Every structure is written in C-alpha cells, then in structure tokens.
Amino acid sequence: MATVTLESPLSGIIGGRSAKALEKAFGVVTAQDLLEHLPRRYSRRGELTPLVGLPVGEQVTVVAQVLDVQVRRMQRRPGQIVEARITDGVGTLTLTFFNQAFRANELRAGRQGIFAGKVSEYRGAYQLQHPDYEFFDADAEVPGGAQLEEAAAKAWAETPVPIYPATTQMPSWTVARSVAMVLDALTDVPDPLPTQLLRSEGLLALGAAFEAAHRPRNDSDWRSAQRSLKFREAFDLQLALLYRRRQHAAEPSTPREPGALLESFDAALPFTLTGDQTEVGRVIAQELALPHPMHRLLQGEVGSGKTLVALRAMLQVAESGGQSALLAPTEVLASQHFRSVVEALGPDLAARLNPVLVTGRMPAAERRRALLSLASGTARIAVGTHALMSEGVTFYDLGLTVIDEQHRFGVEQREALRQKGAQPHVLAMTATPIPRTVALTAFGDLETLTIRELPPGRQGIETFVVPEIEMPRRAARVWERAAEDIESGRQIYVVCPAISGGKSPSLEEGELAADEAEATTAPLAGRAAAGTSAAGASAAGGPAAQAKRPLANVSDTVAEIRAMARFAGMRVEALSGDMPGPEKDQVMSEFAAGDIHVLVATTVIEVGVNVPNASIMIVRDADRFGVSQLHQLRGRVGRGAHAGLCLLMSTAEQGTTARERIEAVAATIDGFALAEIDLELRREGDILGTAQSGGRSTLKLLRVTHDGELIAHARELAGSLLDVDPELITHPGLAAMISREEEHLENLAKS
Ligand code: ADP
Ligand code: MG
User: Fold this and answer.
1) Mean pLDDT of 571-588
2) Coil, strand, or helix at residue 384?
3) 694 and 26 Cβ atoms separated by less than 8 Å
4) Which pLDDT does position 410 carry in this prediction?
5) Which neighbouring-strand residues pair with 614?
6) Nearest CA to 630 among 687, 584, 679, 674?
7) What separation in Å is there between the alpha carbon of 632 and the centre of ligand 2?
C-alpha cells in the first residue's frame, strides 16, 4: 500500500465499500475527515448505560448486559420471534428479531456489549427492533476472554469505549473499526502547528491527539485529546479569519480624504455628536483615507445614531466623487433610510449628491433613471434593497458599501455588493448586539466598532410583562393606556406574531429579509372558540385573553381595536410583509407623519424604523419572539422627547421558560446582556447556521456559548503568528489548512 497520509482517500485504506458507506453516512472522504469524526461520548465496558428515559423514535447506542432471551411463535403469522432483554442493572430494554432464530444463540444471558437501534414503544415497554450489537468478549483486545487476570480485567472494564455519532447503516463500532484501520495505516502525521506553540499550550501532537481521542486507554487520554483538538479548532478558525482579513486589508483601494462636504454637513447638524459617535467617526474617517479597504462592523443600540455615522462616512467618500451604497434588508427600511438621508443632507447637499433609491418594486422608468445616474456617477449615494446587488446595477466609482442590519445578509451578499467597485470600503451595521465570541467567530473577518452611548435627551423605556391569564384586568388596562397616550398626541405600535387568522406563524430567526420573516402556513385548530369577533373582544375589555386561543394576528387585532369604543375616531392600520411595497410605504409614511394613530404590524417594524412620536410598543403573545427581537421592538419607542413604554402581553404562565425569557427582557435594557441571555437560550446551531450533512460545515468541539476565553486566546496567538509570518511561509501546513477552511468560513457566516 502507498504511504497513507491525512489527505489519503479512505477508499485506499479501508476499501471502497466501507469508504462509500462512511461518506454516505457522514460526508467523510479523507483519512483526516474520518479522524475528525470524533466520538460523541465515551462509555466503559464495566459501566452500563442507564436505560430509563431513552428517547422514543431516536437512534441510540447503549452499553448493557443480556438478561435473558426467549424464542416464541408469532401469534397471527407463521414464523418465530426472538425476544432478548438487556439491562443496565436497573431497567430493561427488549430487543426483538423476527424470523432470526440464530440470534438466540448469540444473545446469551450475561454477555455484555454495545447495542444500537431505534427506540420504539410497544405496549408500554421500550424496545429496539432488529438492533445492531457487538459483544465485548469478541474484542480482539480482550486478553483471554473469561479467564482474565484480575488486574487486566479491571483495566479492560475501565477502558473507555468511544461511542460515535451513528446511523442505522453505520453503527458506532463499525466507525471505530474503520478509524482503527486508518490510525494503524497512517505512517506519519505532520503537525501544522509550530512545535513551540504545542509546548507553550501543553497540546498533544496531532497524531497523538487523534490516537488518544479514538483509542483512549483511560479518561485522561480522551480528555487531553479533546482539549488539544478543541484548541486546534479555535486556532485554525481564527487564523483563517485573521488571514482573510489581512489579505483584504492589504488590497489596494482609493483613499478617500474628508473635505468640504463633510464640513458643511457637520456645521449644519442641529445637535452635537455623542462621544461614541465622534470616536467611531474618527476611526472610520482615518481608515477611509488609507489606500486599503476598511472592513468594519459597527454595532450599537437602536437609536444610537449609527445611520448618522454612516452618512458622515458617505460624505467623506463623496468628496472625491466616490459613491456609496446603503443596503437595507427590507423595502420599508430602504425607503425610510432614503427619506432620512435626503432630510439629513438638507436641500443644498442633497442637490449636489443626488441620492437615489433602488428597490425591486419601484416603477421601471424611475428605476432606470436611478440606475443611469449611478452608472454615470451623478448620483453619489444609493439606498436600496437586494435590488442594489442585481446585475443591472453598475456604479461609476463605488467607494463605500454600508450594510444595515448585517445579520440579515450572508457573506456572499456582502461580497456581491463589494464586487461592484474596486475594493470599496465596507461598513456593516447591526443593532442586534452580538456577543463578543460570536462576533469573533461568525464575523471574525470584520473588526468591530461599538456605540454604547445614546444621544442625550432620550426619555428611557419602561418595560412590563402583562400576564393575560393571571391579570386580565391589567391586560384590559393596556388598551385604556394606549388610548390615553393617543389622546395626548402620541402614537402606538402593536406587534403580533401572525399576519392573519388561519395562518400560523413561522418565527425562525435569521431569515434573509424581514419581508419574508413572517407568518404563513397551516391553519390552527380551534379558531371558532376564540374571542375573535370584535364584539367579544371589546366585551372582554380588549383583544381577548384566552388560554388556548390561536396566536394573535394583525388583521384580527386591527378589527378588534377599531371596534373598541375607546378608539372611536382614531386611525388603526395594518402593516405586514405580505402587503405590496407601495402600500407598505404608504402606511409607513402616514404613520411617520402622525396620520395613523395605531400601527398594527408583524416584525417588519423590527429593525431601524424611526418614528420619535411613538410612545408605546405593545407586543401580543410576546413569548413567541426571541429575546433580541423583543429588545429590537422595544427600541422603536422612546426615541423622541417622550418616555417609551413597552408592554409584553403573554399567556405564558409563571415559571415557564417562555415567561422567563420575557421577564428577562423586562428586567434589563442592556442589549448586550440580553444578547448573552439569548445565546444561552438558543441552541448553538441557531447561531452559526445549522449543521449541513456532516462534512466541515459547522463547529465540532468548539462552542461559542462556553469557549469565549479559548476563542479570544486562540485569536491572540493566531494574530502574533501572522505578525511574524504574514504569508505563513514557514508554516506550509497552516497555509494549506487555511485554504481548506475557506469553505467552512462561508458556511459559518450564513447564520
Ligand atoms: P440607529 O441607526 O443607530 O438606530 P439613527 O442614526 O437612526 O440610529 O438615529 C436615531 C435618531 O437619533 C435619529 O433621529 C437621529 O437624527 C438622532 N440622532 C443621531 N445622533 C444624534 C445625536 N448625537 N444627538 C441627538 N440626536 C441624534
Ligand atoms: Mg438604524
């Protein structure tokens, strides 16, 4: 056999059939792929897996002992059934086999082994039908079977047994056997990490780490293997991210010096910049003037004045005739940004910079005009949606791309817009505070800037949970209070999780655009029972609180509020993502102008919408929203001279997680703290994209929720290494690793 390395295809080591089966099961192709398919946990031969509480319907792998076995004729059909019971010493689990009498000879009482199969329930008892199993006494490594020396027997019983993620076709021990063949065949495992780093971090060499992870002699073997491999994962990822960032940063781009345009804008500003705006603005101004592209992520609470910072950057770029593109996730936001850009510029600057709006839904003639002025360079600012990235859009000299609500876009989209210029500067913005470890991992190729300070004069926001079931009176009072505020000149938002009755919501987070991020799908049962008629609702003192009613939706809520006597003469309108663009814009601008008193909406208004006169945010079925989402929603009020009030209505009962989440939102206004809470409550996969059919798509041992320090430490080490050897000339192994990581990074950032 030829020399076996980590890059060798599995087929040459373990045979074509096994290789194909492994590829099908886990997407592994090379020796390295398989060695990185790590055990999920480790059992011991002497330590049986508890059999209580096994998840019905799921594939399990358990270590157990055969208790007894019996063969009987089937009652209704011809044939035999073998039933063996296995035990963990406490509970039992039945293994059943149809017409396989030979099983009874294998499944002798007292034998121990690993059993794998799908758990089902039959007449109240758990069973595995036609499970796979392997007995320990058949292990080649068991010295002497039953006549073990006492010490050897003890060692044998205590040796950890790796339990691999398995499928029906590919049980754990088959994986183990293939892994063993690969480990035996590998001649030399070069370690891409510098020896000095291995020593200073106390890491196992790569080959030794694989050996200890897959064939541990004791617990400390696999523990140190895991530690080493986890460090490597963090280090590889950070090195790749930093390398990519430095590559980008080294590319040439046009320096954009600030000048008269920015000066006259600043001179006309009706307020002074906050300290953070000044500081962040200084960093950005400096970097725009460098002959290399800036790549920055600007995070700051809603209303902290990010858009203003972005606009000042655009003015700096415009000084030398450069153009800027501001990309927003929805039509509503794009239109709003456009209006506020025009307004903030004032008539003189607006005439000189000629900002244009580009969306997919605008009339063809208008769009053509806008595209023409971008191509000729007469428009120096473009505001738009995804439409900005489409092929027909060309820029004369794109110098800066600003991406609002970065988390709603993927890396390729950021890339697509970047491609429209010669290395334009990139400013990505987000109002969803990103915990540091997530920022380092998912957005590690962007350097973060943060605005923590809000502009002065904000009145603050108070948040209360309104438990509809426990306190129906308080729920009724919500509508009373809303009406009072409207009477004193304010406006109200009401947010619902669904668009209309008969549609149940899909509240997945992280969709591309809020336009799509809304409710649709199958009807909910039991609508007739709910208080959906306007009369019923007002009788209960407002949209009714019912234990098992369908989710609150926009269209019913509009009808219910309109029917309340208290709201007579007030304008109540709906806004949802399924409405035609012009209609949405119409509603939004009427609300902004104060002509609509109550705006009942889905989460289309989640991000960036700015109506300073709005004072109350009412969220119905608030427990159906994510923690960060609620925080975003609350940020829509208290943006002007009036204090904000956020009322989180919910039927979730005290003590439930759902209730705890909304209580957490009510308890703190600190978006960063909430982002951390959100992180705790969400599964890892939700944050870094869901696992795609194995392969190298997601994190393996690393957990952004728990490994913050490790990630930060690895980043520091990776940075120092690149400082000394930016092209990794003395570390060819790491250079090769980085090109492999590229694909991995793309997947990570698609969250
Ligand atoms: P963000 O994009 O971070 O949500 P915006 O840039 O939309 O915030 O700012 C919110 C509001 O605050 C806008 O009306 C803006 O004009 C105003 N604003 C921004 N900076 C300041 C400041 N330094 N002082 C007072 N008001 C400000
Ligand atoms: Mg904004």
Assistant:
1) 88
2) strand
3) yes
4) 63
5) 491
6) 674
7) 11
The residues whose Cβ lies within 5 A of ligand 2, an ion, are: 307, 608
What does the block give as tokens for 244?
């990519």
Q: Is the pLDDT of residue 110 over 80?
A: yes
Q: Do residues 356 and 377 lie in contact, with contact meaning Cβ atoms separated by under 8 Å?
A: no
Q: What pLDDT, in 10s, does the model give residues 68-87?
A: 999 988 888 888 999 999 98
The answer, yes or no, to whether residue 751 has pLDDT greater than 50, is: no
Residue 223 pLDDT class (50, 70, 90 cuts): very high
- Which residues are CB-contacts of 107 (< 8 A; sequence separation ≥ 6)? 66, 69, 82, 84, 95, 133
Query: Helix H segments across 599-682?
Result: 627-634, 657-667, 671-681
Reply yes or no on whether the pLDDT at 248 is more than 60: yes
Where do we find the tokens 């053509």?
368
CATH architecture of the domain with residue range 461-668: 3-Layer(aba) Sandwich (3.40)
Of 100, 131, 107, the C-alpha closest to 118 is 131
Q: Is the CB of 308 under 6 A from ligand 1?
A: yes
Nearest CA residue ID for atom 17, ligand 1:
305
CB burial of 153-182 (b: ≥16 within 10 Å; e: otherwise) equals beebeebbbbbbbbbeebbbbbbbebbebb
User: Could you tell me the sign of the dihedral formed by the alpha carbons of 716, 717, 722, 724, in that order?
Assistant: positive
CB 306 near ligand 1, within 6 Å: yes
Q: Which atom of ligand 1 is nearest the CA belonging to 308?
A: 6
Contacts of 261 (CB under 8 A, 6+ apart): 315, 316, 318, 319, 349, 352, 353
Nearest protein CA to atom 11 of ligand 1, as residue: 303
Homologous superfamily in CATH for domain 260-290+304-430: P-loop containing nucleotide triphosphate hydrolases (3.40.50.300)
Partners of 49 in the beta sheet? Answer: none
**pLDDT tier for residue 169 given thresholds of 50, 70 and 90:** confident
**Quick check: 172 pLDDT over 70?**
yes
- Say yes or no to pLDDT of 456 above 90: no
**99: alpha, beta or left? (left if phi > 0; alpha if psi -120 to 50):** left
- Closest listed ligand to the CA of 311: 1
Task: Count Cβ atoms below 10 Å from residue 673 Cβ, excluding itself.
Answer: 15
Compute the distance between CA of residue 345 and CA of residue 66 in angstroms, rounded to an integer.
80
Measure the CA–CA gap between 515 and 332, rounded to whole angstroms: 9
The yes-or-no answer to whether 11-187 and 260-290+304-430 have a common fold is: no
pLDDT score for 687: 38
Beta bridge partners of 382: 325, 356
- Which tokens sit at 514? 């809020």
Domain boundary assignment for the chain: 11-187, 260-290+304-430, 461-668
CATH numeric code, 11-187: 2.40.50.140
Structure token pair of residue 366: 């208008």
* Pocket-testing residue among 307, 336, 342, 383, ligand 1, by greatest number of atoms within 8 A of Cβ: 307
List own/partner pairs for 9-12 with CB under 8 A and 24 or more apart: 10/34, 10/178, 10/182
Cut 0.90: pTM above it:
no
Band (374; pLDDT cuts 50, 70, 90): very high
Tell me the percentage of the chain whose pLDDT exceeds 70: 83
Percent of the chain's residues with pLDDT above 90 = 47
pLDDT of 504 > 60? The answer is no
pLDDT in the model for residue 681: 60
**Does residue 635 carry a pLDDT above 50?**
yes
**pLDDT confidence of 159, banded at 50, 70, 90?**
confident
**What span, in angstroms and rounded, lies between the C-alpha atoms of 585 and 592?**
10
- Taking CA atoms only, the protein residue closest to ligand 1 atom 25 is 455
- Residue 405 CA to ligand 2 center (angstroms) comes to 8
Q: How far apart are CA 744 and CA 695, in angstroms?
A: 9
What pLDDT does 54 receive?
81
